[in-house]
Design goal:
This protein has 159 residues and is an alpha+beta fold. The chain has helices spanning 20-32, 73-84, 112-125; strands spanning 11-13, 44-51, 56-60, 90-99, 102-103, 130-135, 138-142. Strands 1, 2, 3, 4, 5, 6 and 7 form a seven-stranded mixed beta sheet that branches. A hairpin with a 2-residue loop joins β4 and β5. It is globular, with a radius of gyration of 16 Å. The model has no long low-confidence stretch (mean pLDDT 96).
Length: 159
């Protein structure tokens, strides 16, 4: 049997080590947690994305008593961007979360469904989406969704 090694590199830094543009995006993601509707989990997630033209769009998780009917912060932001600016690729996506103690210490990562949607967007525009995952202890900096979903299912997979 042949083995395939998959290696990724994820950066880790303090927010002040990032560009002013990225710090502003992280602040927008943190602020978006306040728009979360999370009466069941009490776990508020905010996302902010920057399009290629510099436009910033935010999203927040929206829960529902019928749990499958809710939607993650990442996808609310991505779908809003696609509906309002379909000609603009996503440059960078920042994600932050808070619980009853405030903003989370550790950066949180997107769920599998959000990773799949982000992979489709990368494939659609033929360019990577940079991801900033915020925690009060530091920020993970990821170059592409493919780094956190290396074996991706995209349209080309069905041909």
């Amino acid at each position: 049997m042949k083995h395939i090694d998959l290696n990724i590199t994820i950066g880790f830094c303090q927010p002040q080590e990032l560009s002013e543009e990225d710090q502003t995006l992280l602040t927008a993601a943190q602020g978006a947690t306040l728009n979360s509707y999370s009466p069941y989990s009490h776990f508020a997630v905010g996302a902010a994305l920057r399009l290629a033209d510099g436009t910033v769009i935010t999203g927040a998780n929206q829960e529902n008593a019928a749990f499958p009917s809710g939607l993650c912060a990442e996808r609310t932001a991505i779908f809003a961007a696609q509906a309002q600016h379909p000609d603009q690729p996503i440059d960078t996506l920042a994600i932050a979360a808070s619980n009853s103690h405030g903003l989370t210490r550790e950066p949180i990562v997107p769920c599998g469904s959000c990773r799949q949607v982000m992979t489709e967007i990368e494939d659609r525009y033929h360019r990577p989406i940079r991801i900033l995952l915020y925690g009060t202890d530091g920020v993970y900096v990821i170059s592409s969704v493919k780094d956190i979903l290396p074996l991706s299912f995209i349209g080309e997979s069905m041909k």
